[in-house]
Amino acid sequence: MPDQKIIDVLLVEDDPGDVLMTREAFEHNKLRNRLAVVSDGVSALEFLRKQGEHAEAPTPDLILLDLNLPRMDGREVLQALKSDDELRKIPVVVLTTSEAEEDVVRSYSLHANAYVTKPVDFDRFIDVVRQIDEFFVEIVRLPAH
Known about the structure:
This protein has helices spanning 16-28, 41-48, 74-82, 101-109, 122-139; strands at residues 8-12, 34-38, 62-65, 92-96, 114-117. By secondary structure, it is α/β, with parallel strands linked by helices. It has a five-stranded parallel beta sheet, with helices on both faces. The radius of gyration is 14 Å and the shape is globular.
Protein backbone atom coordinates (compact mmCIF):
# COMPACT_ATOMS: atom_id res chain seq x y z
CA MET A 1 0.00 0.00 0.00
CA PRO A 2 1.83 3.11 -1.12
CA ASP A 3 -0.37 5.50 0.89
CA GLN A 4 -0.08 3.54 4.15
CA LYS A 5 0.83 5.67 7.15
CA ILE A 6 4.19 4.95 8.70
CA ILE A 7 4.32 5.23 12.46
CA ASP A 8 7.06 4.99 15.07
CA VAL A 9 6.61 2.08 17.45
CA LEU A 10 8.55 1.63 20.69
CA LEU A 11 8.86 -1.96 21.87
CA VAL A 12 9.76 -2.25 25.55
CA GLU A 13 10.85 -5.86 25.89
CA ASP A 14 13.71 -7.59 27.71
CA ASP A 15 13.38 -11.06 26.14
CA PRO A 16 15.64 -11.22 23.04
CA GLY A 17 13.48 -14.02 21.61
CA ASP A 18 10.34 -11.87 21.84
CA VAL A 19 12.19 -8.91 20.32
CA LEU A 20 13.28 -11.13 17.43
CA MET A 21 9.74 -12.49 16.98
CA THR A 22 8.34 -8.95 16.92
CA ARG A 23 10.92 -7.83 14.35
CA GLU A 24 10.15 -10.91 12.26
CA ALA A 25 6.41 -10.24 12.58
CA PHE A 26 6.96 -6.69 11.28
CA GLU A 27 9.01 -8.06 8.36
CA HIS A 28 6.64 -10.96 7.65
CA ASN A 29 3.62 -8.64 7.60
CA LYS A 30 5.59 -6.12 5.50
CA LEU A 31 4.90 -3.43 8.08
CA ARG A 32 6.74 -0.28 7.13
CA ASN A 33 6.53 1.16 10.61
CA ARG A 34 9.76 2.06 12.35
CA LEU A 35 10.46 -0.14 15.36
CA ALA A 36 12.71 1.04 18.20
CA VAL A 37 13.51 -1.33 21.05
CA VAL A 38 14.57 -0.80 24.66
CA SER A 39 15.02 -3.63 27.13
CA ASP A 40 14.02 -2.20 30.51
CA GLY A 41 11.69 0.29 32.13
CA VAL A 42 14.32 2.90 32.97
CA SER A 43 15.52 2.94 29.35
CA ALA A 44 11.90 3.22 28.19
CA LEU A 45 11.37 6.41 30.18
CA GLU A 46 14.74 7.80 29.04
CA PHE A 47 13.73 7.08 25.43
CA LEU A 48 10.34 8.72 25.89
CA ARG A 49 11.83 11.74 27.65
CA LYS A 50 14.70 11.96 25.12
CA GLN A 51 17.38 11.67 27.80
CA GLY A 52 20.99 10.51 27.53
CA GLU A 53 21.67 8.27 24.53
CA HIS A 54 18.05 8.71 23.46
CA ALA A 55 18.26 12.49 22.98
CA GLU A 56 17.49 12.13 19.26
CA ALA A 57 14.82 9.44 19.67
CA PRO A 58 11.56 9.93 17.81
CA THR A 59 8.41 10.31 19.85
CA PRO A 60 6.62 7.00 19.31
CA ASP A 61 3.08 6.89 17.99
CA LEU A 62 2.52 3.58 19.77
CA ILE A 63 4.18 1.71 22.64
CA LEU A 64 4.22 -2.08 22.94
CA LEU A 65 4.99 -2.67 26.61
CA ASP A 66 5.93 -5.87 28.40
CA LEU A 67 5.04 -5.95 32.10
CA ASN A 68 7.91 -8.03 33.44
CA LEU A 69 10.98 -5.87 32.92
CA PRO A 70 14.25 -5.32 34.79
CA ARG A 71 15.13 -2.09 36.61
CA MET A 72 11.54 -0.80 36.47
CA ASP A 73 8.63 -3.04 35.56
CA GLY A 74 6.04 -2.28 32.92
CA ARG A 75 3.39 -1.36 35.48
CA GLU A 76 5.66 1.37 36.86
CA VAL A 77 6.48 2.56 33.33
CA LEU A 78 2.78 2.71 32.48
CA GLN A 79 2.03 4.66 35.65
CA ALA A 80 4.88 7.12 34.99
CA LEU A 81 3.99 7.82 31.39
CA LYS A 82 0.25 8.13 31.97
CA SER A 83 1.03 10.60 34.78
CA ASP A 84 3.12 12.75 32.42
CA ASP A 85 1.22 15.48 30.53
CA GLU A 86 3.45 15.11 27.46
CA LEU A 87 3.51 11.31 27.28
CA ARG A 88 0.02 10.25 28.38
CA LYS A 89 -1.49 10.67 24.92
CA ILE A 90 0.73 7.94 23.42
CA PRO A 91 -1.32 4.74 23.12
CA VAL A 92 0.10 1.81 25.06
CA VAL A 93 -0.59 -1.81 24.23
CA VAL A 94 0.50 -4.10 27.05
CA LEU A 95 1.97 -7.10 25.22
CA THR A 96 2.92 -9.66 27.82
CA THR A 97 2.93 -13.33 28.74
CA SER A 98 0.92 -12.68 31.91
CA GLU A 99 -2.64 -13.94 31.88
CA ALA A 100 -3.18 -12.91 35.50
CA GLU A 101 -6.47 -11.08 36.00
CA GLU A 102 -4.81 -8.65 38.45
CA ASP A 103 -2.35 -7.61 35.71
CA VAL A 104 -5.20 -7.03 33.27
CA VAL A 105 -7.18 -4.98 35.79
CA ARG A 106 -4.15 -3.00 36.97
CA SER A 107 -3.02 -2.24 33.41
CA TYR A 108 -6.41 -0.84 32.48
CA SER A 109 -6.56 1.04 35.80
CA LEU A 110 -3.26 2.65 34.80
CA HIS A 111 -4.86 3.63 31.46
CA ALA A 112 -3.37 1.06 29.10
CA ASN A 113 -5.16 1.26 25.76
CA ALA A 114 -5.16 -2.51 25.26
CA TYR A 115 -3.96 -5.68 26.96
CA VAL A 116 -2.76 -8.52 24.74
CA THR A 117 -1.38 -11.84 25.96
CA LYS A 118 1.54 -12.93 23.78
CA PRO A 119 0.79 -16.11 21.91
CA VAL A 120 3.54 -18.72 22.19
CA ASP A 121 2.84 -19.99 18.68
CA PHE A 122 4.90 -17.99 16.15
CA ASP A 123 2.22 -17.89 13.45
CA ARG A 124 -0.36 -16.67 15.95
CA PHE A 125 2.13 -14.09 17.26
CA ILE A 126 2.64 -12.78 13.71
CA ASP A 127 -1.13 -12.52 13.31
CA VAL A 128 -1.53 -10.65 16.61
CA VAL A 129 1.17 -8.11 15.68
CA ARG A 130 -0.50 -7.61 12.27
CA GLN A 131 -3.86 -7.01 13.95
CA ILE A 132 -2.38 -4.49 16.41
CA ASP A 133 -0.75 -2.70 13.47
CA GLU A 134 -3.94 -2.70 11.39
CA PHE A 135 -5.94 -1.30 14.27
CA PHE A 136 -3.52 1.47 15.21
CA VAL A 137 -2.46 2.39 11.66
CA GLU A 138 -5.51 1.85 9.51
CA ILE A 139 -8.49 2.25 11.86
CA VAL A 140 -7.52 4.49 14.77
CA ARG A 141 -6.57 8.12 14.38
CA LEU A 142 -3.47 8.75 16.48
CA PRO A 143 -2.69 12.17 17.99
CA ALA A 144 -0.07 14.30 16.28
CA HIS A 145 3.12 15.05 18.21
